[in-house]
Amino acid sequence: MRTKRCGIEDLRRAIDCLPVETRLAMLHGVRSNPIIVGAYTDRTGGVCPMLAAHRCGGRTSLISFAHAWDRFARAKRARRATERELRILTAHLEASLLAEQLPELDRAMVEHRESLERGAADQGTIRRAAPDDPERSAEPREHDGWAWLRPFRRLDEYQRALELVEAERDALAGAEPARTRERAGTPA
């Protein structure tokens, strides 16, 4: 038997499959139209989120979203979506749109760090601490709440952060032999 958590995960997955333009249109449509579950339209003017997106310019038809939305809402018949259901839908739409923008932000942050490191390397003033440095007393590991990662509320966010940490660890491990050779004074 599928749990309520699976319904939310299915809805999130279906939202992530939508094109960005459709997600934006759906977000606008959900805020400007009465939203229903269990049907495409009703007699009182309510519409499903996909039709609301279509009316706001998102010309996509994705039946898996409609099924996920109805499964999440446990719709047995056409009815108005509750405030809670609408809050969850808009939160997932906003989070999905934000996740689309993160790669650009990450790239900008990496470029900024690299420019800072280049400037520091040119001046020879700042050296980044490496994980294998013997002096690590500045780390606040004895303080309550200190952690390498922030707390996460969703599993997919945690998995993305863990992948980034593992990629950084692998990159540092790849740079480790070169650093060891430099300390020993042997050429590469």
Report the uncertain regions: none
Secondary-structure element pattern, one letter each: HHEHHEHH
Report the structural category. Answer: mainly alpha
Indicate the overall shape: elongated
Strand content: under 5%
Q: Provide a count of the helices.
A: 6
The helicity comes to 55-70%
Keywords:
188 residues; mainly alpha; 2 domains; 62% helix
Would you mind describing this structure in some detail?
This protein has 188 residues and is mainly α. The chain folds into two domains: 4-95; 140-188, no CATH class. The protein contains six helices and two strands; from the N terminus they run H-H-E-H-H-E-H-H. The chain has helices at 4-17, 20-32, 49-55, 63-73, 83-123, 155-184; strands at 36-37, 79-80. A two-stranded antiparallel ribbon has the order 1-2. The longest helix has 41 residues, at 83-123. The radius of gyration is 24 Å and the shape is elongated. The model has no long low-confidence stretch (mean pLDDT 80).
Give a topology summary.
Blueprint: H1 4-17, H2 20-32, E1 36-37, H3 49-55, H4 63-73, E2 79-80, H5 83-123, H6 155-184
Antiparallel strand pairs: 1-2
What does this entry show, briefly?
By secondary structure, this protein is an all-alpha fold.
